[in-house]
Design a protein that fits this description.
By secondary structure, this protein is α/β, with parallel strands linked by helices. The protein is built from 15 helices and 16 strands. The longest helix is centred in the first third of the chain and has 15 residues. The structure holds adenosine-5'-diphosphate and magnesium ion (MG).
């Protein structure tokens, strides 16, 4: 790979703009899973240890509002992230009051070698995500002016053509961080010549997020297990009534075509045979197990049922390669986490290459108490890994490749 690594940059004494993925789930101001911060630590400590002045750019959530002021006022601020990063590093991490304005410039100018500081949520700047090259370019220039070098380590954002991901690396000597290199190495293993059987497990809320990857995986995987909210559209396509379950009615046609294509290509698609249905969407909702052929009209699916747990475990038992993206139930509610726990446990027991992708899937593994090292890799980027597996070029990777 032509991509440069940290070892190709002379970072000592230089200000390095590090694009990291610190997009952690929040409950108010509390971080509910700090996995992405911890995954970013090796590159941060390596840079700081080599005497760099580390200035981190990152996004958090989806700030709303027409302009900078409105978004900055609405949040979310990276303040809780700066706090947690400081705790994990054992050194204070000051946070700029803006992204690439006066405060950022003052903060950058005051850094000493080994210091680590954070810019405010880069998505407070509407230009970060703009489709207009000139708008993004203007923000990229302001960001680049804060530093002498750029390191791209925000794997979870690499599939975005955003200013801090795609445009800044064209303006500064740049390299990929260790997290990005490690993530890409595993995805290459999944796409190159995966050991067979290669089993893919997909869950999560909506099929529209993942139909593209399913279609392209049909050419590669031997078996695709589908659970979670997205499975209800598949079951509907097979003629089942799914009551008040999540349904993307406008995707039923496309899902039917995917099922037909799978049958044609000899790829086994495994859907739930039973479901946990809840009377309402609440952690303490009344719930029962239903056969998919007899799902009541006034219930909604919230997890796979016990027969499906066994079916999925059996379909995973002989796998040499597994990619899993998306919880198969509303695991955030303990009463509906059994399906996701069963899938995670079955995959964790396998000796082959096992990759978990997706922020919520990774959070589920940690929340359910499964040791992270039971998997070959827990990827920090759901969307980015899916797009890579789909065969798309990731803009951020392209930018680092040509840097
Ligand atoms: P990842 O972040 O791992 O890529 P997604 O974001 O696609 O996963 O999906 C995760 C979300 O899907 C979780 O918040 C989970 O509660 C939800 N989900 C899973 N199964 C269901 C279901 N049956 N009904 C509603 N939501 C579901
Ligand atoms: Mg998610």
């Amino acid at each position: 790979m032509a991509m440069k690594s940290l070892d190709d940059l002379d970072v000592s004494g230089a200000t390095v703009l590090l694009r990291a993925d610190l997009n952690v789930p929040l409950d108010g101001m509390a971080i509910t899973d700090d996995g992405r911060i911890r995954a970013s630590l090796p590159t941060i400590t390596k840079l700081a240890g080599r005497g760099a002045r580390v200035l981190i750019a990152a996004h958090l959530g989806r700030p709303k509002g027409a302009g900078y002021a409105e978004r900055a006022a609405g949040g979310p601020s990276l303040a809780p992230v700066a706090q947690r990063l400081g705790e994990l590093l054992g050194q204070g991490v000051p946070l700029a009051a803006d992204v690439a304005g006066e405060s950022a410039a003052t903060l950058a100018a005051g850094l000493a070698g080994g210091d680590v500081a954070l810019l405010e949520n880069v998505r407070f700047e509407p230009a970060e995500t703009s489709k207009d090259d000139a708008e993004r370019g203007e923000l990229a220039a302001r960001l680049a002016a804060l530093a002498q070098l750029y390191v791209g380590d925000g794997f979870g954002a690499l599939h975005r053509k955003h200013a801090s991901v795609y445009d800044v690396p064209a303006l500064l000597p740049s390299a990929a961080g260790d997290l990005v290199l490690a993530e890409v190495a595993v995805l290459r293993q999944l796409t190159a010549e995966p050991a067979r059987p290669y089993v893919v497990v997909l869950g999560g809320a909506k099929p529209s997020d993942k139909l593209g990857v399913i279609a392209s995986l049909l050419g590669k995987a031997d078996r695709v297990l589908i659970g979670g909210g997205m499975s209800y559209t598949f079951l509907t396509a097979q003629g089942h009534e799914m009551g008040r379950s999540l349904l993307e009615a406008d995707k039923v046609g496309e899902v039917s075509r995917v099922l037909a294509q799978a049958a044609e290509q000899g790829v086994e698609i495994v859907l739930p045979v039973d479901l946990v249905g809840a009377a309402m969407f609440a952690p303490d909702a009344e719930h029962h197990v239903f056969d998919v052929a007899a799902f009541p009209a006034d219930y909604e699916g919230v997890d796979i049922g016990p027969a499906t747990r066994e079916l999925f475990a059996a379909k995973l038992a002989d796998a040499s390669t597994v990619f899993w993206n998306g919880p198969v139930g509303v695991f955030e509610f303990p009463a509906f986490a059994a399906g996701t726990l069963a899938v995670a446990t079955a995959i964790a027991a396998l000796p082959g290459l096992t990759v978990v992708g997706g922020g919520d899937s990774a959070a589920a593994v940690r929340k359910l108490g499964i040791p992270e090292d039971a998997f070959s890799r827990i990827s920090t980027g759901g969307g980015a890994s899916l797009e890579y597996l789909e065969g798309s070029t990731l803009p951020g990777l392209e930018a680092l490749d040509s840097a």
